[in-house]
Automatic annotation (TrEMBL):
InterPro entries: ATPase_P-typ_cation-transptr_C, ATPase_P-typ_cation-transptr_N, ATPase_P-typ_cyto_dom_N, ATPase_P-typ_P_site, ATPase_P-typ_TM_dom_sf, ATPase_P-typ_transduc_dom_A_sf, ATPase_P-type_domA, Cation_transp_ATPase_P-type. The gene is ENA2_2. It is a multi-pass membrane protein. This is P-type ATPase. The chain crosses the membrane at residues 312-331, 337-355, 500-523, 535-558, 1073-1096, 1102-1120, 1141-1168, 1174-1193, 1214-1232, 1244-1262. It comes from Linnemannia exigua. GO terms for molecular function: ATP binding; ATP hydrolysis activity; P-type sodium:potassium-exchanging transporter activity. Residues 1-22 are annotated as: Disordered.
Length: 1277
């Protein structure tokens, strides 16, 4: 058991306290009690309190046996210092992670006097960062008094003391602090207060002793403590007098394990030592339980579950639904059961639709659980076995084979042609070539696509094999962070949902006021109170638009059907309307704005000749040609496809494109297996020739591999020289140096027979290379000028060693010439690659003597000197179990040498080839439409800024004076700063997908309505947070589709614009319905109010009101939901998300229309004979007149501004049918014996119908005058 009283510094103890058996981080730092963990062997007890841990003169750790360099240590501290200041604003890192990293560096790389001197500037900022974070407080103390400092604050305090002891520059930086700064940050009064732990008290006393002893300006300890804390500090100093004398920081038992991190900046050897593992044996099984206890299980955060009952209950708690239920209760109170039943049916249907949509949306969370990998091939105890991936811990060695999913975040140690598809995270379907080399950077944050030395959970191995070290598990993996973001970000209400809720509340307030006014007027005229209240309630029912929810739902559902026909699949109904009000569309470039297919656009040879390609994105080898580009106005000349017709520079350049390549093109016949037609690198003569275009059964062609390399293969096909052509000549690949991000070059070595007629005779070798233009050019000593006809027997003879030298040396002028051509091509949005070759000795000079292995387990013995830990240090159980791995001699990562003849140098420059992912057809026009509609289009891409800007300019997204910024600039800006950018950028290039969420929230903070597109899993949080999330149906992952509101079946930007137009149409129709419905209902209300004010009998009975609402409200309103779009719909600016459904203009329209119908009806009613015996006919006449006017108003409401005479009469046949149906129902209610008695109606005759015709003519004239005023004034409805 651990000793509660810690001895002075240097007596063989670790910095951290024994782990609390109830704490989640068992083997971590500074817990608040002194319970021990049985999984550990306590150091203080083992050491017996004697024998200080000696410093090692050679400067490496007695715990890890790793020899360290000063630059490496400063680099790691610098990363953590940056995060100390960024942790409050960066949600992707936690203070806990930063403190873990600093503790690890202190314990294993600095402690013990190994590096007493480090960079002053870094130490100064480290001191500032620690002081800033050591005062963080959390919950109240255990006894209810004072505050309790957080665990991270305690670690910051402890590290402050450790660095004070160990590093001279840190001491210097602290000495420059003022007393008041230290007093405020150290919080010694809290650390020695009644609620503090013994560890906190000991650390406080020790630090006071260090400060007062080493600094004259801090000699009086009372100046470092608030006056009210003097007594407590003095008491602690008496109780822990040993630490006053020791001038050291207290230490307690425990073991520090490496923090979980990607370690992309660490060498493999270093990572192995950090996690105490070995590539040959892996971790020992006995250490796994303790490691799992510390790191946790490798499981994704479980999404919160909403019960089915709660989903159903939510559907009935919407305000407007509650309003309709209240109306149904009122109807039941008045014994009007038929209208009550209709309302309840509407409520139930709405609940079913809403429940279905919410249940589907919940599938996004269910999809998360399917992303975890069930099994993993792991190396433990020197043996390989399949285990449940949940059992993986950092330090496990995972072996990956082609087709397998990655079970955790890994640091790759060994790879053999390893390519991993990371589209689930990045959205990019291209397989990423992996390279275990370390990447030096000053930040722990690196875009996923740039982490070449890592493999991420749930990604898939497309090619090759690999072995990796588990470095992150569970919630700390990239997939875990995305899972937490999806489950933790609530979906905001759409504008129409908010507006309908506000409208419903306004209507209920209006209904209550109406009830009170009506009841007051009737009672004031001494009418019976009961009858007055019943009439008032009936009018209140009249003002409520019973069909509002039903019509809105049906209108959106019909919009969904129309959008589905346009390849836009809507998952949530309100998204239909929301699309109509978007002000920003943030779109991916690849595959959405562009075709998503790379194609060769231009070949520029070293002779200064430029060639073009037709149908370059078509994979069909029989389509397309290579053309010789002429001047402006000249028709391009098609180049022939035989050796006699093709120029030497073009042929050799395209040979490099085709052979220095690992991709292929296949043809798929129906559902049969794919046959490789444009063969892979070493198919040789057995490859199948491409069939004719008319070959039966041909269905489609498909590129296999990197799209860039596929485009290069296709370019050679267009010229008539596929790989099979060269293989049939006996060209065989014998060596390859794969592309990596450091060299930016790929090279291959081929051998070919000197005499094709004698395949087994002598042969010659040559190197072909492609890569970044500047890298290729810098490795060239010459270039191939124009080869005149007849200078060589065949264009391919330029590669033969016996051929007379045709090259010329590279000069500064040529260098500038190539740079100019490369810059021009890049400005045109092309991805430019340089092409080169060189000759090698005859018969294999310089070839490798050894065979080619699979690249795994090829590490040489370590050259570092090992040391033995001193006897005074008794290790923990984890240290004992993993000691063999730490002392393993087989973990070096030296590279194999490249044979001198195959070195990537002394090349002959051939030319430049420019590739492009061309813009989709119609996108430019769609962007123009968006601008006319007041919508800003923003391109978001991981591509280079020049390429992105060129495409954006071509499409009209980026105009003169527009702005494009890179992701690294975006990282430096807060959300507030992004929102304030002027002008707001139209292009965001080299942006990591996780920045999309930041961009969405920034735009929403300034009141914009944002539509965001995406396809990868890490796009899901941004898609969910956007007002409208749009997922790609072809390239998108399942979880992204589940989180989205709309899925594009064709991944086409044009479809988004069409969906926006449909959304505007839907909102227009909803608005027409609401204006129509409220106009009709308000006409009834105003009519009743006016009759009550003049004290005449009310024109309708309660039953008539309800019947009029049923026949006049629902059918015409439903028909308005399918009304075609008005002309000029996409020429309007978007409706502001802040603007309500009803504006002052629309309210004026409602008032005008309702008053028109009311005054006409009131005139007819007052004209009628209302004497005893004739009152029922007067009621029936008023009912017939007003109901007919309402039906006519439904037809007139087909347009809000345009004259009804300019609208196709048969353009909305549903309106004709709806008005006719309602008119027939009205006639049935008037003329059907028995039924008209139930409704208190009587038949009406010719004079009444004459009045109706006159009233309709007057209403049409008034409606046209109203629309004329709206057109002339330009008022916004």
């Amino acid at each position: 058991m651990a000793d509660n009283t810690a001895p002075p510094y240097g007596e063989g103890q670790s910095i951290i306290s024994p782990a609390n058996e109830h704490a989640p981080r068992q083997l971590s730092f500074a817990q608040k009690d002194n319970k021990s963990n049985d999984a550990l062997i306590d150091l203080s007890a083992a050491s017996g309190g004697g024998g200080g841990a000696p410093s090692n003169p050679e400067g490496y750790s007695i715990y890890s046996n790793i020899k360290d360099g000063k630059a490496s240590i400063e680099h790691q501290i610098e990363i953590n210092v940056v995060d100390l200041f960024d942790v409050q604003s960066n949600k992707e890192i936690s203070l806990e992670e930063v403190m873990d990293g600093l503790r690890y560096v202190m314990e294993y790389r600095i402690k013990g006097g190994r590096f007493p001197s480090l960079d002053y500037d870094i130490m100064k900022r480290l001191a500032d960062g620690l002081l800033m974070n050591m005062g963080n407080s959390g919950k109240k103390g255990r006894f209810g008094g004072g505050v309790a400092l957080t665990e991270e604050a305690d670690v910051a305090f402890q590290l402050f003391g450790e660095f004070l002891l160990e590093v001279q520059e840190f001491r210097q930086a602290v000495g420059e602090k003022s007393v008041s700064d230290l007093r405020h940050a150290l919080k010694l009064d809290v650390r020695c207060g009644s609620g503090s732990t013994e560890q906190e008290q000991q650390a406080a006393v020790a630090l006071v002793a260090l400060l007062t002893t080493n600094y004259p300006q801090f000699a009086d300890w009372k100046e470092l403590v608030k006056p009210e804390g003097h007594v407590d500090v003095q008491k602690c100093m008496r109780e822990h007098a040993d630490y006053v004398k020791a001038e050291s920081m207290p230490e307690v038992g425990g073991v520090i394990l490496a923090p979980q991190a990607l370690c992309f900046d660490r060498r493999i050897k270093r990572v192995l030592k950090m996690y105490r593992t070995s590539l040959q044996t892996g971790l020992p099984s006995e250490a796994i339980p303790a490691l799992q206890e510390h790191y946790g299980r490798n499981v994704l955060p479980q999404p919160p579950r909403t019960s089915v009952f709660k989903m159903l209950w939510t559907q009935f708690t919407d305000f407007i639904i509650l309003l309709l239920l209240a109306v149904a209760v009122l109807m039941a109170a008045t014994k009007d059961f038929i209208p009550m039943a209709v309302l309840l049916i509407v409520v139930v249907l709405n609940a079913i639709i809403g429940f279905t949509q919410e249940y589907k949306a919940g599938k996004a969370l269910d999809a998360l659980t399917k992303l975890s990998v069930p099994k993993a091939q792991v190396l433990r105890d020197g043996a390989t076995s399949m285990i449940n991936s949940e059992e993986l811990v950092p330090g496990d060695i995972v072996i990956m084979e082609e087709g397998e999913s990655v079970p955790a975040d890994l640091r790759l140690a060994e790879v053999s042609q390893l390519e991993i598809i990371e589209s689930i995270l990045t959205g990019e379907s291209v397989a990423v070539v992996k390279d275990p080399k370390d990447i030096r950077t000053l930040t722990r944050k690196l875009p996923i696509g740039d982490c070449k030395g890592n493999a991420f959970m749930s990604t898939v191995v497309a090619k090759g094999r690999g072995k990796g070290i588990v470095v992150r598990t569970g919630r700390l993996t990239e997939m875990g962070k995305i899972s937490a973001a999806i489950t933790g970000h609530s979906k905001v209400l759409t504008p129409v949902q908010k507006k309908l809720a506000v409208l419903g509340k306004l209507l209920v307030v209006f209904a209550i006021v109406l009830c009170a006014v009506m009841a007051g007027i009737k009672i004031g005229y001494h009418h019976p109170t009961g009858e007055s209240l019943k009439v008032a309630l009936s009018l209140a029912v009249s003002v409520i638009p019973e069909g509002l929810v039903a019509v809105v739902t049906v209108t959106m559902a019909l919009g969904v059907r129309r959008m589905a026909a346009r390849k836009a699949i809507v998952r949530t109904l309100p998204a239909v309307e929301t699309l109509g009000s978007v002000t920003f569309i943030c779109s991916d470039k690849t595959g959405t704005l562009t075709e998503g297919k790379m194609g060769a656009s231009e070949l520029w040879t070293s002779a200064g000749v430029t060639y073009g390609f037709t149908e370059s994105t078509s994979l069909d080898p029989n389509k397309g040609d290579v053309t010789l580009k002429g001047g402006s106005g000249e028709t391009p000349q098609v180049i022939g496809k035989t050796l006699e017709q093709v120029p030497a520079q073009m042929l050799v350049s395209l040979m490099v494109s085709s052979l220095c390549n690992n991709s292929s093109v296949v043809q798929k016949e129906n559902d049969e297996d794919e046959t490789v037609l444009i063969d892979t690198p070493d198919k040789g003569k057995g490859a199948v020739d491409p069939p004719a275009a008319s070959a039966p059964g041909a269905v489609e062609w498909k590129g296999i591999g990197d799209p860039t390399e596929v485009a290069l293969v296709v370019a050679a096909q267009k010229a008539g020289f596929p790989k099979t052509f060269f293989h049939e000549l006996g060209y065989t690949r014998i060596y390859e140096q794969a592309f990596d991000s450091e060299r930016k070059v790929m090279s291959v070595v081929y051998k070919a027979p000197l005499d094709t007629a004698v395949p087994g005779g002598e042969h010659y070798e040559f190197v072909l290379a492609k890569g970044a233009p500047e890298e290729i050019l810098n490795r060239c000593v010459g270039f191939l000028p124009t080869v005149t006809p007849g200078a060589v027997g065949s264009p391919l003879d330029v590669l033969k060693p016996s051929q007379a030298e045709l090259t010329q040396p590279v000069t500064e002028g040529f260098h500038d010439h190539v740079s100019e051509a490369s810059g021009r091509m890049a400005d045109e949005g092309l991805r430019v690659l340089g092409l080169a070759y060189k000759k090698v000795k005859v018969n294999g000079g310089g070839a490798l003597d050894t065979g080619f292995g699979d690249g795994l387990d090829r590490f040489n013995d370590m050259k570092d000197k090992k040391e033995v830990a001193p006897e005074s240090h008794k290790p923990t159980e984890v240290e004992l179990l993993t000691a063999a791995n730490v002392n393993d001699d087989d973990d070096d990562d030296d590279e194999e040498d490249v044979p001198p003849g195959y070195a990537e140098s002394d090349f002959i420059f051939l030319g430049l080839i420019g590739l492009i992912d061309p813009a989709r057809a119609g996108v430019k026009e769609s962007v123009r439409i968006c601008k006319e509609a007041g919508i800003t289009v923003v391109m978001i891409t991981g591509d280079h800024i020049k390429t992105a800007s060129a495409i954006a300019k071509e499409l009209g997204i980026l105009e003169e004076g527009g702005r494009a910024i890179k992701g690294e600039e975006l990282d430096l800006l807060s959300e507030e700063a992004i929102a304030e950018l002027k002008p707001f950028p139209n292009v965001f290039a080299r942006v990591s997908p996780d920045n999309k969420l930041k961009l969405v929230t920034a735009l929403q903070s300034r009141g914009e309505s944002v539509a965001m597109t995406g396809d990868g899993v890490n796009d899901a949080p941004a898609i969910k947070a956007a007002n409208v999330g749009v997922a790609m149906g072809i390239a998108g992952t399942d979880i992204t589709k589940q989180a989205a509101d709309i899925v594009l079946a064709n991944d086409n930007f044009n479809t988004i614009v069409e969906a926006v137009e449909e959304g505007r149409r839907v909102f227009d129709n909803i608005l027409k319905f609401i204006v129509y419905l409220l106009s009709c209902n308000c006409a009834e209300i105003f009519l009743f109010l006016l009759c009550s004010i003049v004290n005449v009998d009310l024109p309708f009975t309660v039953t008539m009101i309800l019947w009029a609402n049923i026949i006049a409200d629902v059918p015409p309103a439903m028909a308005l939901g399918v009304e075609p779009a008005e002309p000029g719909l996409m020429s309007r600016n978007p409706r502001s998300p802040k603007k309500g459904i009803l504006t002052y203009t629309s309210l004026s329209i409602i008032l005008f229309q309702s008053m028109s119908m009311m005054l006409l009806t009131f005139g007819v009613y007052m004209w009628a004979d209302k004497s005893e015996g004739h009152l029922e006919y007067a009621h029936a006449e008023a009912f017939t007149f007003l109901t007919t006017l309402q039906l006519l108003q439904g037809f007139l409401s087909r347009t809000m501004r345009t004259s009804v005479f300019r609208v196709n009469f048969f353009g909305n046949r549903w309106m004709l049918f709806g008005v006719l149906l309602s008119f027939v129902l009205m006639l049935i209610g008037i003329y059907t014996p028995g039924f008209n008695g139930v409704l208190n109606l009587v038949p009406v005759y010719g004079k009444t119908w004459a009045k109706v015709v006159v009233g309709c003519v007057i209403l049409v004239v008034l409606s046209e005058l109203e629309k004329l005023v709206l057109r002339r004034t330009g008022w916004t409805i």
